[in-house]
Amino acid sequence: MRIPALPVAVALLLAGCGGGGSSSSSSTAAGNGSFRIPGTGGEIPTRYESRMHPSASGLAGKEPALVMPEGPPPKGLVSAELIAGIGDIEGRGEKMMIQYVGYEYGTGRKFVSSWDQGRPFVFRIGRGEVIPGWEKGLEELEGGGRRILVVPPDQTKGRYPPDIPPGKTVVFIVEHLPDPRPDATDGW
Hints:
Blueprint: H1 5-16, E1 25-27, E2 46-48, E3 78-86, E4 95-104, E5 110-113, H2 114-117, E6 121-124, H3 132-137, E7 146-151, E8 170-176
Parallel strand pairs: 2-3
Antiparallel strand pairs: 1-3, 3-7, 4-5, 4-6, 4-8, 7-8
């Protein structure tokens, strides 16, 4: 018995679509509908924290370029993995060292960058040292990982980072850097 080639080819093609890759865009608040961050579908690259080599300033690599999401901003916090880290995950009260860049949603105007400041930023998770959008959006970010955060205005008020445009949705690209003293018992 002969099986028609076209239906079999279509079935195989459809079976191969949608599986295997991990979609990395995730909404961390209700009401975001179908908001998507461009370029984050499918499989994402992986980076071992131990293979990041910060310079003397503590920064690693070049500032990443932004691909601005289109359309109206989401109502809640949205985050997506750009690079999956394989390394330490800091818990509440533990120090996390990051490098970051922040842009105004829609205009793409950069307003803050650890690369421009020439140093990374260190803070303790869950202690209110950073804006709520970072507290929630950086949870479970493994060392070596890079994440994009789209933060609504109600989650941008806090002690750090500086110069966030008031009343605006903002976009951050954040990387979790390795502990500069991994053998220290005091966690820095």
